[in-house]
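pinging the channel bc i need a second pair of eyes. not urgent but kinda urgent?? the chain im working w is below, pasted from the shared doc
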Amino acid sequence: MLFIILAQKANFAVVDMEKIKANYYDYKDALNQVRQFQLEKEKTLDSLKKEIDSLKNLLSEQRAFLTEEGIYRLNKKIEQKEIEYQNLAKDIYNQVSQKYQQLVTPYINRIYSVIDSIARRNNYDIVINKSNNDAILYFNSNNDITDVVLNELNKAYATVIRGGINYVGIFYFKLNTKTSKLKDIADKMVSIMETEIKKIPNINFVSTEQTANIYNKEDPTMDGILKAVSILKLDAFVWGNLDIKENTIYFKISIYSKDGKEIYSRSGQSSDKEEEWSKLISAYTKDIMNKYRESLKK
């Protein structure tokens, strides 16, 4: 293809579609809405899966005590639930696909429309997508119109935050002591932090629950979290560690950039009484988010 361009001395430009999709704010908003919609729908699917597993466990445990009729009825119920699960999964897939077409596709079309408009204005004969294109070994940066396309796409995007960095998620605490009590405290802390972040103007909270298996929620690591951050297209994330000794809890919460660089953190300790530590978590979350917003203005 490039040989043809050179032979014809065509006027060409290159564009990085991955960069455009990662930084086109309306597209990211729409994609996040679809992800949240899918996550909510899949909760019902997960609940049905647990019901099926529970019935299968019941059959396995009680088979020796059931009559043939009882076994038949339980198998029949499992079969019906599995059919219900398959139908629901297909329905959710169709709903998510429809939501994607409704919310995301118009912005994808907008990207191509803007590229076409810029190409026509500048008399480009062809525009090449350089994302994951092994055929392009070199090009003059003057031919890269990626930023021009992004400026055109984002010029009407209303945002107070400089640079438009506003997608934030919370990852589950790393528990230094694995007890049911500490896990319960961690769950409540994450809920408090989520509530505080959602109150902040122009910060879009993104649920990380859909990537729990990727970053290993039970024993999270930075490497796993960064993989989840990339999938969710977050601009920043909150993560911390938590421990308990006797009746005292020790914690640290930090906000990180999308590449895992710590921007700001707060550490503290409190009694295990919820009325005490909840106030600290709320205040510390507001503090680290304020520091994050300040860092965006620099």
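so The chain has ten helices and eight strands. and The two ends are 43 Å apart (CA to CA). — does that match what u expected or am i reading it wrong
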